[in-house]
Design goal:
Elements lengths: L4 E4 L7 E5 L10 H4 L7 E4 L15 H14 L5 E6 L1 H11 L5 E7 L8 H20 L2 H8 L10 H11 L4 H10 L9 H5 L5 E6 L3 H7 L5 E5 L6 H4 L1 H19 L1
Parallel strand pairs: 2-3, 2-4, 4-5, 5-6, 6-7
Antiparallel strand pairs: 1-3
Length: about 260
């Protein structure tokens, strides 16, 4: 089995950009940003429980990573940068922690490296369990109306919030609930030590209004990029600035390799 995805061509010999969306998104989430990076071949994936991969269920991060590895092999992707937002960023960090041979670099937007104590994990397990129950039992419009009232989304305007609720409500609640529980922060390992031991560049993006992930960024051994006029969902709120940051990262790394 492999993940569903959409690919776009780039210059031969250039490392791929492999994009992973956030919870309740799909392969379209990164395409505006990716369209500005046309020198690189791009692959936009649907994570399990989402989009064209909605039928795929997983038991945890190891299973998601195995699907990602199988997908890369199926596309004959030998050299690649992994770009992930939120849930996609957490999966990208888990993948990088395994030190796969073809990974050239890691770019994460607003991804959590993992909780550090049992109390936080227990609280997150309860919270995600409550959300999963709602996703399975209630209309998605109602659930997402409350989901986007969480503090991390405080920078959204009412119009942005309405657009996201409409877009995300096209999902299957049961599939989202399964993925939410399988990849909860309650079961994600703390990746900080593994990321410090990585052998590839690590760049971390966050919106200037995203106070929670600005603090997390300071904990990481990563090159940080602050995206202006944006909160947690920076690539949606200011795609031009995110695309410019990615282009700069890639230009610098190509120059360093010459």
């Amino acid at each position: 089995m492999i993940l569903a995805g959409v690919q776009q061509a780039g210059k031969p010999g250039t490392p791929w950009l492999v994009f992973l969306h956030g919870f309740s998104g799909d392969n379209r989430e990164w395409q505006v940003v990716g369209g500005a990076l046309s020198d690189s071949p791009r692959l936009y994936l649907d994570l399990p429980g989402h989009g064209g991969s909605a039928h795929l269920s997983v038991s945890g991060f190891e299973a998601v990573n195995a699907l990602l590895e199988s997908t890369l092999i199926s596309y004959n992707i030998l050299n690649y940068w992994l770009v992930g937002y939120s849930l996609g960023g957490r999966i990208a960090m888990f993948h990088a922690a395994q030190q796969p041979p073809g990974l050239c670099g890691l770019i994460v937007e607003g991804g959590h490296p993992g909780l550090q104590n049992a109390e936080e994990r227990a609280a997150r397990r309860q919270s995600d369990g409550r959300w999963a129950t709602r996703f399975r039992q209630q209309p998605l419009e109602s659930v997402f109306a409350d989901w986007y009232q969480q503090p991390v989304f405080a920078s959204l305007t009412d119009a942005q919030r309405r657009d996201l609720i409409l877009l995300r409500s096209q999902n299957s609640g049961a599939h989202l609930a399964d993925m939410l529980e399988a990849t909860s922060l309650a079961v994600q390992p703390d990746l900080r030590a593994a990321l410090r031991a990585r052998n590839v560049p690590f760049h971390y993006l966050y919106g200037e209004r995203d106070e929670k992930f600005a603090a997390i960024a300071r904990e990481l051994d990563a090159v940080c990029h602050v995206i202006p006029n944006a909160g947690h969902n920076a690539h949606r709120e200011n795609p031009a600035a995110v695309a410019a940051s990615l282009a700069q990262i890639l230009r610098l790394r190509i120059k360093d390799s010459l």
